[in-house]
Amino acid sequence: MDSMRNKNIRIIGIPENVEKENGAESVLNEIIEENFPNLGIDGEMCVEEGFRSTRFVNVKRPAARHIVVKLAKRKDKERILREVRNKKKRITYKGAPIRLSANFSTETLQARRGWSDIFKALKDKNFQPRILYPARISFRYEGEISSFPDKQKLGEFVTKSPPLQEILKKVLIPEKRKKGERGHSPQTRETNG
């Protein structure tokens, strides 16, 4: 599913109906002109199509639907997202803060969000964490970059390193408890409760 989206950029935070005037494609060009004037792809970037994503109803957080822009070249998408990561200040559209991100499937986004607590703990301790495609975490530890496809592999690595275990114990232990609770059969829960 993500391979079909590999040229797409998701624009988050643009008010509804802004694209009605010039099209969703022009919104990306305006963002690039406003935030990255030296990027050098304004004339050569080819946008194939742009559209509003389908609405996901969340009563607690009503928000505008995201704009998805499909570029002709994956290289353009990577250049834009690299600039977004390197930019220290907020990305804006007509002065209002927005976000640009890769357009992943729901499953990939959910898997990537699963690393958020661990990512934050590592970032707070300056381990330079990164979420790699599709949903792997990597970080620098003792001068080397370590990468893990899932929390189980990370947990095995952490048990061999007491300092790292201390840093991640609060975010890894709840995962183990959740898994342990799910592993009980209904009969076990009844006898314990």
UniProtKB/TrEMBL annotation:
User: Looking at the record, which segments are called Disordered?
Assistant: 172-193
Q: Which GO terms describe its biological process?
A: retrotransposition
Q: Name one GO cellular component term.
A: ribonucleoprotein complex
Report domain L1 transposable element dsRBD-like positions: 107-169
The family database entries (Pfam families) matched by this protein are listed as: Tnp_22_dsRBD, Transposase_22
- Ranges for domain L1 transposable element RRM: 7-102
Q: Which molecular-function annotations from GO does this UniProt entry contain?
A: single-stranded RNA binding
Q: Family assignment?
A: Belongs to the transposase 22 family.
The family database entries (PANTHER family) matched by this protein are listed as:
L1 TRANSPOSABLE ELEMENT-RELATED (PTHR11505)
Q: What is this protein called?
A: L1 transposable element RRM domain-containing protein
Q: From which source organism is this entry?
A: Equus caballus (Horse)
